[in-house]
Amino acid sequence: MIKELKLRKILALVLVFSVFAALVAFSPNSEEALATPYSNYITIEGSLASAGDVFTTEVTVDYSLAPKFHIFYVRTGYTGFSVKVTDIDNNSYTRHMNGANMGSPTGREWTPLWNAGNYTGEVTYQITVTVNGAYANDCSFVIIIDTHEAGMNALSGPNYIVPLERFLDMPPVGSPILSNNLYRSFMIPTGDMEEYYSFVATGNDTVSFQSAYEGLRFRIEDPADNNALVFGTDTASNSLAHSVDTNGGGRNHFTRWNYKTLTPGKKYYVVLYRASTYSSSPGYIDSSYALSSPYVSIAVGGPRLRPVNMELYESSTTMSVNSTTTFSDRSILVSGLPKSAYVTRFEVTHRGTTLSNFKDFRYRYGTTAWTTSVGMYPVFTVPYTYLGANNTPANGTWWVGYRAGWPPLTITPGMRLSYYYELGNFEQG
After folding, report:
1. Is residue 427 a part of any domain in this protein?
2. Which of 251, 170, 174, 263 is nearest to 214 (CA)?
């Protein structure tokens, strides 16, 4: 059954469309409905009320107006949905939009409208929308069919807002959050285009956008105050908000900021746009893109983490280890890592002899208590909790200690650190 079908008509292409539009207006509960075509694009807004609900409609496009059309999908609720497109020759394909708490949730996406029959005039397609994944509290959606650039522009602004669930890179055991909620948008803003998203603040919120383009920016707006600006990232004073991180897997441009002043429990808008100082580059809009088009990764909530494994630091001078009862200790200073880097694993290293010549090892950070190994095993697990307040920073003075099993020994002391840091956050500690 069609639920909450809202079809808006601006200008009919031909008289028959007006007739069909009138039928839709007077038959809102029919199992099939014809979406209202505009001057050269079609907009469908709807929602599914339950897991078994089905939305079905038909749309007619005119290939004499444009050689190619695209279909745009926007998830305006929390539940994912699937869209099956079937042409007059029964050729079909299905696109899945993942919802919140599913793997790789998708907010905005587009595909070419398949013209398998190489049609040249008016062609009618059937659009069928079903729930994708478990049904949450809302499964509303917007579908637009148009040329690529016009469709992107039609979706600009606050009329179509994608709600974001809280991002947690490491959801705690037993958490109702089933995935980390790293969202994807396959629509890259260009020109004056703006993408609107919404989130509910907690009082400690990191907003992060990752892409292959350096010109993307965002701002925070307050919908309760007539969309008043709360924070913007397109200013020199917020230069720390923009970074290039080579661990981004090819999408190395990050725009992110942490907010501790947003009101917990209050809804805010986060608006993605292109900075005016950057010209449009190939890729922002390119109708040749297929399903492998670039995308923006969006996270609002906790920080996005990147592991760095067993990075080596060594002392510049050798030392003697001459006792089986007393430790010989050496300090090693670590600096220049991001302030967001916190250690998860520590290894005491050495050069100059073999492991079997030692009795045991120990380490500490700054003036904290020593931790001693069990026998000759030099690797330690450092307590770490995602979003924890008592994690151990990677920057600072570390101490390594050695006791000999077969003295005397002369070694070059060292250590290896494994740590997490926040992607795109290179603020120095």
Report:
1. no
2. 251
Q: Concatenate the DSSP letters of all residues of 122-139 into one string.
A: EEEEEEEEEEESS--S--
Q: Do 293 and 321 share a domain, yes or no?
A: no
Euclidean distance between CA atoms 223 and 412, whole angstroms = 60
Question: Is the separation of the CB atoms in 273 and 157 below 8 Å?
Answer: no
- What are the pLDDT digits (tens) for 388-411? 999 999 999 999 999 999 999 999
Sequence-ordered list of residues with C-beta below 8 angstroms from that of 259, at least 6 positions apart, any chain:
201, 204, 205, 206, 207, 220, 231
**Counting Cβ atoms within 10 Å, is residue 338 exposed (0-12), middle (13-18) or buried (19+)?**
buried
Amino acid at 60: T
Does the predicted TM-score (pTM) go above 0.85? no
Query: How deeply is 194 buried, as exposed, middle or buried, from its count of CB atoms within 10 A (0-12, 13-18, 19+)?
Result: middle
For residues 234 and 297, state if they share a domain. yes
Q: Are residues 137 and 202 in the same domain?
A: yes
Q: pLDDT per residue over 308-360, tens digit each?
A: 998 899 999 999 999 999 999 999 999 999 999 999 999 999 999 999 999 99
Domain identity same for 288 and 311: no
pLDDT in tens, 272-295: 988 765 544 434 333 333 333 478
Which amino acid would we find at residue 240? L
428 within a domain of the structure (yes/no): no
| 367 part of a folded domain | yes
Q: How many domains, the chain?
A: 2
Residues 6 or more apart in contact with residue 261 via CB below 8 angstroms: none
Q: Write down how long the chain is.
A: 429
Q: Specify the amino acid at residue 117.
A: G
Do 254 and 326 sit in the same domain of this protein?
no
List all residues 6 or more positions away from 369 whose beta carbon is below 8 Å from its beta carbon: none
Burial 90-107 (b: 16+ CB within 10 A, else e): eeeeebbbbbbbbeebbb
